[in-house]
Amino acid sequence: MKIAIERAALLRAVAQAQSVVERRNTIPILANVLIEAEGGRVSLRATDLDIEVTCRAAADVARAGATTVSATLLHDIVRKLPEGAQVALASDPAGERLTIQAGRSQFALATLPREDFPVMASSEFACSFTAPAAALRRLFDKSKFAISTEETRYYLNGVFMHVAAGEGGARVLRCVATDGHRLARIDAPLPAGAEGMPGVIVPRKTVGELRKLLEDDEAAIAVSVSDTKVRFATPEITLVSKVIDGTFPDYARVIPTGNARRLEVDAAEFARAVDRVATVSSERARAVKLQLEDDRLILSVNAPDTAAAQEELAVAYGDERLEIGFNAKYLLEIASQVDRENAVFLFNSAGDPTLMREGADTTAVYVVMPMRV
Asked: pLDDT at residue 284 above 70?
């Protein structure tokens, strides 16, 4: 193999590919990236056996071929090369070394045979459709904060992507995540061809890697789904991931429908106030109390051993007096999802789940459980 490629194009491809590589693994080949050059293009593929990322870039291919080298080492080298440099990659005839040359810099990296590189088993995808990058980014960005980190509840360690009935009865593409303490449910218009999509739980790590494909608002993402795998692809990048083998709980049962006490507050102002008073809360509890009455909201924290804090906000609230407590971290995470100016909280009682919306928008709904304060 012998190719020449512009440094920026190579860096983009190797950065995306190497990010899925696990730093600690017992299988040497999994620390490597597979480089394949043919027909004016080079592709770099990396995998951890659960996720496989393939990145493609244009290159001047003098001799087609393939090899594997350390992903992190290749990334570090390319990252430190001068901007605008032309990078030459060449593997020796014996296939034991890959030479990297740019200007006066030259590196020789040990390789492993391409035949040893694992390839994810192909899957028959039951459903394929195309969705705008901006819509997918909103679905995953607004839901991922609620993914559970409890490994024992593995079926909550991802985002549940499925087709559902929206508020008006129309079918929507929906993403849901919950950890039992808070829940996010985000809807987007259903793309053509997605009607028969099986519901899948996209793992946390895959959600993080997928974010890198969704930066360009104008991009169209080809999505393919089966019962065991999901694939997201652009002309330059393909991400294939196993899905979590489990049943996502019936989340509709925990979304309150009868909460009548309505609070409307400036989302940014609310988040800043919560952050300020939570400064003195104990790290273990992080409890903040909300006192509501007559268009006033009093946020308070009382940590008897250390300090106390209180802040008052002018809000829109006309229902009976209410005192309710929440984990400050959960309030901040939910408030940070609001794109509109105002957040609307709907309460029932101090012991019942609270629902939050972005103004009148019902395509993004959040639920947070209260805590005793």
From this structure: no
| Cβ proximity of 198 and 166 under 8 Å | no
pLDDT in tens, 315-357: 999 999 999 999 999 999 998 898 888 999 999 999 999 999 9
Domains and CATH numbers, the chain: 2-116 (3.10.150.10), 127-253 (3.10.150.10), 256-368 (3.10.150.10)
Burial of 23 (0-12, 13-18, 19+ CB in 10 A): exposed
Q: How many CB atoms lie within 10 A of CB 28?
A: 11
pTM beyond cutoff 0.85: yes
Q: CA angle, corner 42, sides to 40 and 45, nearest 5?
A: 155
Decide: 42 and 55 in contact? Cβ < 8 Å. no
- Phi then psi for 39, rounded to 5 degrees? 60, 40
Q: Which residues pair with 3 in a beta bridge?
A: 61, 89
